[in-house]
Amino acid sequence: MRTISLRTCVLVLMAMFCVVSMGAAASQEEAKALAEKAAIFAKTQGKDKALAEFNNPSGQFTKGELYIFANNWNGDCLAQGGNPKLVGQNHLGLKDSTGKAFMKEFIEVAKTKGSGWVVYSWTNPTTKKIGAKATWVQKVEGADYFVGCGVYK
Hints:
This protein is an alpha+beta fold. Helices cover 37% and strands 25% of the residues. The chain has a 5-stranded antiparallel beta sheet. α2 packs antiparallel against α3. The protein starts with 5 loop residues before the first helix and ends with a strand.
């Protein structure tokens, strides 16, 4: 019987951890799909039920690092699955580290195009470093607000 050294075992485990970790990061496709699902849910279930579900940390719109947020056309936060303390705050003036007014861009994209990607710089809560974040924003048809979901690139 062949024995495996402790060093070999550690190296194999580290390699497996790296592969699993790389696959664990959410993709832009997953963020887009979750936002589209949220917009459909909001349209079919109504605003109150949708916002309650978006704010539910163990609900169907929180998947690992992905979560749904919702803001109205004035920038007021209606739902924030990642940080419920932000609900009720106005985010119209939010800017990233480069000065980009990304909330205004979210609103512009959702209002004029219906949906789309906005890329900006934001602090990654895992690494604590500023990096590129891509957020898919989606207008809720027939409503006065939009939903969004973002991922770090």
